[in-house]
Design a protein that fits this description.
The chain is mainly alpha-helical. It is built from 13 helices and no strands. Helix 4 runs antiparallel to helix 11.
């Protein structure tokens, strides 16, 4: 099912990861805009439907064709459930109760779950002692953020748990998505197939739960934010996601959520007048330390330099 990948990202890979973090950071801000005007499931359905239309127009324009194999579409369906339907619905509902900045920080728990899930299921992304240290530090950060505000009654516990559950779903999606590398499917087609499958699942559920949308009651600014959410933060973002996943693996692609809170907090504070308590920044700092250990590059470099200094001292 899985082709072996290179777990060390190139400069191009890091650039794509940075761009992806900006796009997904913007998604928390845009959801914060549209959630006051549209119901949660409607937002999710519009997001994947507009993204699907955009991606297929682009794919057909450059000569790519939809796959005809039913098995491939079943894989798209599984990816759509794990990577779109479940996490999008949980995040949007969660953001009806908590600020976009806090939601993005809680979503930064995704690589913590990814280390555990990928380590258990993928032979080339095994858990190491450094990754385990990162998981422990990262979880402490999450506990600090979710524990103190939630149990003081200031912030909804269930909303925060919804974001954490979405992070877990993303982790399983990262592992599940590795099979596309073996299937040799173009990342544009993978992204289009995923959001198409998600749209087909969500339309009947949304109509049943929330009913049809009265478009005459939706402000132009909401439609503008919804379009940006679908085209920039979903269609383009998932092309980048699947490109990184195919070359650098599930753990590395999900490190993007370490960078997402920074852009989300800046956008939320500038445009939505949102504020975060000091405890949130403490938790974010611990998550950053944990994720740097999960990535391992900086820590291995520091340990190597320390060993070199020790050897030089002994030789002297």
């Amino acid at each position: 099912m899985n082709a072996t990948i290179n777990t060390s990202m190139s400069a191009k890979g890091w650039a794509m990861l940075l761009l992806l973090s900006i796009l997904w950071g913007g998604s928390f801000f845009l959801i914060g805009v549209v959630v006051s005007d549209l119901p949660p499931l409607t937002i999710v359905t519009l997001r994947v439907a507009i993204a699907a239309i955009t991606l297929w127009i682009f794919a057909l324009a450059i000569g790519l064709k939809p796959p005809k194999d039913l098995k491939v579409w079943l894989v798209f369906l599984g990816m759509g459930l794990l990577n779109n339907v479940i996490p999008f619905a949980l995040i949007v509902w969660g953001q009806t109760q908590i600020a976009s900045g806090l939601a993005s920080i809680l979503n930064a728990a995704t690589p913590i779950f990814a280390v555990i899930v990928a380590g258990a299921l993928l032979p080339d992304e095994r858990i190491t002692s450094l990754k385990l240290t990162g998981v422990a530090v990262g979880f402490i950060g999450v506990v600090i953020m979710i524990g103190l505000p939630a149990f003081s009654g200031e912030v909804s516990l269930f909303a925060q748990l919804a974001i954490i559950a979405a992070a877990l779903s993303y982790a399983f999606a990262g592992v599940y998505g590795r099979r596309f590398n073996a299937l040799k499917i173009n990342p544009i087609i993978t992204a289009a197939g995923q959001v198409t499958a998600s749209t087909l699942v969500l339309i009947p559920i949304t109509l049943f739960v929330e009913g049809p949308l009265d478009i005459n009651t939706v402000a132009f600014s909401t439609w503008a934010a919804m379009s940006a959410l679908a085209i920039l933060c979903t269609a383009i973002a998932y092309i980048l996601y699947f490109k990184i996943l195919a070359t650098a693996g599930a753990t590395n692609v999900l490190l993007v959520t370490l960078l997402v809170p920074v852009s989300a907090i800046l956008l939320g504070s500038v445009f939505l007048n949102e504020t975060l308590a000091p405890v949130h920044f403490i938790g974010m700092t611990l998550i950053a330390v944990g994720l740097s250990a999960i990535d391992g590059r900086l820590w291995r470099k520091l340990l190597t330099n320390e060993d070199s200094k020790t050897n030089s001292t002994q030789e002297g």
